[in-house]
Amino acid sequence: MTKKGWSAALALLVAGIFTAGAAAAESSGPQQFGAVSEARLRHADGEPDQWLAPGRDAEGTYYSPLDAINDKTIDRLGFAWNYALPTSRGLEATPVVVDSVLYTTGNWGKVFALDAITGKALWTYDPGVPGQWGRYACCDVVNRGVAVMDGKVYVGTIDGYLDAIDAATGKRSWRADTLPGRGPGDFHYFITGAPTLAGDLIVIGNGGGDFAGARGFITAFDRRTGALRWRFYTVPRDPRRGPQEAPHLDKAVKTWPRGYDWTAGGGGSVWDGISYDPELGLIYFGTGNRAPYGVSQTHDDDLYAASLVAVHGESGRLAWYFQEIPGEGWDYDADAKLTLADIDVAGKKRHVLMQASKDGFFYTLDRATGEVISANPYAHVNWTRGLDPRTHHPIASPAGDWSKTPKLIYPAPTGAHGWQPMSFDRKTGLVYIPVIDAPMVYINTQDRRAGLIEGNFDLAFFFPEDYDPEGLAGLLGHLPSLAALDSGKPPRSRGVTRAFDPIRGKTVWEQPGFSVWDGGVLSTGGNLVLRGDAEGYLNAYAADTGRVLKRIDVGTSIMAAPMTYRVKGEQYIAVMAGFGGGLMANPFPKGSAAYKHGNAGRIVAFKLGGAETPKPPPIGEPTPTQPPQAEGSAAQISDGEVLYNRYCSRCHVFGRGLLPDLRQMSPATHLMFEQIVLKGAYQVKGMARWDDVLSRADVEAIHAYLIDQARQDYAASHPQAPDERN
């Protein structure tokens, strides 16, 4: 037998052993909890019943070989069970299922373990995060999942801890602090991404690049003890503090502006998208924007912001990097999830890393060397004229330069693809991308009203449908009309499920979604692509043609990616449902399930022959309430508008949204307004105190502005009788 034949035989033997072991665990003996090994995760295809990691396998494909639910049987898919989560905040995790136990996260880093057949809770874990940490978590207090191995469940908490939990009991085994320090500025760090297993390490990144003082890094801990093994910084520190921590930073600091204000932290946060190749021993991740967002088309590279990076797992030393956008200035993070695959390129098998980046380009890199194999647009872009064929760096375009005048730029800062997982189907060879086909108006705020938005921002941005030059004039001064902002494409915002050939760089099919913030994608061996949407439907498409096969009305808006597993011969599809995330600063879309039914979080599972899915009861249209009679001066209301937009509007929007519309405050809340904002009276509800940046006069101005807005809202919905107007 040839060497290749022996390898194939050995792989089949290993797969058979794992499959038999899983079957035995289901049929006899004591229940196993979290019994994932390195070998088991590496050979996940040998156990199609399981979903062992957030992306199912170590490659992060979000693809399952299971095929009992397929393009022929999908009509019989129905409700199996439902688990109500104690939250109305955004839910972004894809559950993990190991030996008939489902593990997943809610908000703040809470963990839930459920029976995967019935949905019955086995245990819950609450990390006890102080409410103050919700203040700086961009975007929302979400969490994207857990890692499971050797009887432990690993989760990152919003306040920057990595917790290891006993998979059988839900009791914490150990806790590691991922932050370099815990001073006042460290509220700017948080964790929303899932940990990644890398041999005997557990690796986690941190968010925070949108706020002053945050410096990007990933940290590796011993997965058995929680001991710190190494920390890799993505951007340099102030060179006046002495030598950099590692050689790659000595190179990086030379690429930053001479006059850079290092108190801004640098950014480059690793808030999602970490992968590991056990054969090469390399850990891969993308990095976020430089902080602050700079004016576009600068002449500094700002290494290693907006880059794909590989580090050696053993040492934490740089292996290679590719900077997608030197001098990035559009908020096009490179943090979108990474997929590892072996694909044929020009007749040769290549071990690749793939990413549908926020910037609208699909990158395929050799994962051993970082060589760019291809980089093709998968969405409409006008911020660049294209990529240089040699360096694959963007070619400057006047259409993308918002430094002097506002511009309508594709894609929006949300990216053409954000955190929502894409899926790679080995059978079709296609990736299925949740695409955000939308522009935004970019406005340089450096010479406009100072401090418009809290955080590391030099700009403001608006979807076309939210862009109101007249209404924004008080904040931003004179602005051009939308018609005057010619982008070369009609200014509309839409979400699309797009099947993309990574070899040819071409779209094969697409299906329109409901909103720009619909859910992630699952593909299966049953020729299925499944994706939830904000309208509250779970949509099933044919993986080869894109034909719509079925739509299930779940009744709750969906952002997370579905997953599938099999227990005792029965295949299930499960998804977390609940809206939020990056749309905290926008009201729920009208017609969405969140708008019609509220936003109570759920985990919903489906199976063949299941029932009709129960939906939450509808809620009525919001009715404006009459505000207090107190009036502020015109100057006070104007100041309050600026302060509200800077500090409050990121979470509290006008309209039905994730958090309360502050125009609709009750009389009791009006009376407590100062105690809530300055003293933290509602910290138990997740509302932080703001007395470190707001004075009593500031709070009075914000309150006056809200009362004025409430009065206008009430008057618009309660027209006076003719005799009262005379």
Outline the structure in words.
Helix content is 14%, strand content 28%. It is of the alpha+beta class and 726 residues long. It has a five-stranded mixed sheet with strand order 1-32-33-34-35, with no helix packed on it. Strands 2-38-37-36 form a four-stranded antiparallel sheet, with no helix packed on it. A four-stranded antiparallel sheet has the order 3-4-5-6, with no helix packed on it. A hairpin with a 4-residue loop joins strand 15 and strand 16. The model is unreliable at 1-25 and 721-726 (pLDDT under 50).
Q: Keyphrases for this structure?
A:
single chain, alpha+beta, 4-stranded antiparallel sheet, 9 helices, 38 strands, disordered C terminus
